[in-house]
Amino acid sequence: VRTDATETPNAAQPELCISCGHCLAICPADAVTHESFSDGSVTPVDMTLVPSYAQTLELLRSRRSVRLFTDAPVSREDVGRVLEAARLAPTAHNLQEVRYVVAQDKTLLAAIAKTTAAYFTGLAKQLRNPVARGLYRLALTRSEIDSATHMLPDFDYVAREFNAGRDPILHNAPCVIIAHSRRSVNFPEANASIALHNAALAAHAMGLGGFMLGYVTGACKRDLTIPRLLGIPSSHEVYAGLALGHPANNFTKWIRRKPLEVRWQ
Ligand SMILES: Cc1cc2nc3c(=O)[nH]c(=O)nc-3n(C[C@H](O)[C@H](O)[C@H](O)COP(=O)(O)O)c2cc1C
Prior knowledge:
This protein is α+β, with helices and mostly antiparallel strands and 265 residues long. The protein contains ten helices and six strands; from the N terminus they run ββαααβααααβαβααβ. The strands form two sheets. The chain has a four-stranded antiparallel β-sheet with strand order 3-4-6-5. The protein has a two-stranded antiparallel ribbon with strand order 1-2. 23% of the residues are buried. The model has no long low-confidence stretch (mean pLDDT 94). Flavin mononucleotide binds at residues 64-65, 67, 211-215.
């Protein structure tokens, strides 16, 4: 925004505007109007509610993946509050195009777990078969094959657990949030993951818990059964997922992470 001789703010390069709202959020005199933001779009920040660095770090340290849940369902109101945190996440080019499916139906959740377990059981078999492995070389990049091969013991564990009647995929979580978007946007995976991590932090602050659904997301990339079950449009892809529930355990300590590896230049 530039100010002209009459002190009226004008958009300097309107063709580049991505409706991020910075111009309205920063103007101390509320002198800026923008067609994307009607009355009621701009709210003063309550700095007393912004957590301190120490509070923020403790939130981040104390959030752990919860994989043991009580039988209590997550209320629609609580899912809504968690999704509000997702909605506030930044997106590349401010596109805000991440969409969500909330699955709570027990039959649907069981189908998601079963389809995912079957996918990874089949993948493990194929990666051990020299002919199928050769074909994978045509469809996947070398690093995709290497990382899948590295995961073979995990895929075997998934198969064993699932066959034993347990749920190694959703861990019987009562609620699953799947984030999807059009493929043809910049950084769709980052947009969805950042949004669902916002959601996970909000859930933790609310006393809920959960974990990121890497297995489910991975299965959705190559097997369209789950996206179809969830009614996800064919122009969209699943980029992240979050299981949610009421924790049946409590992490009362936080654990050291690997030391930072950083080069200052
Ligand atoms: C992209 C991503 C995918 C993940 N996928 C799964 C998953 O499919 N199943 C699972 O139980 N945990 C999954 N996790 C959780 C990680 O195992 C967990 O975040 C990690 O071990 C660190 O533990 P913490 O979350 O308790 O700090 C995933 C985490 C990320 C970031």
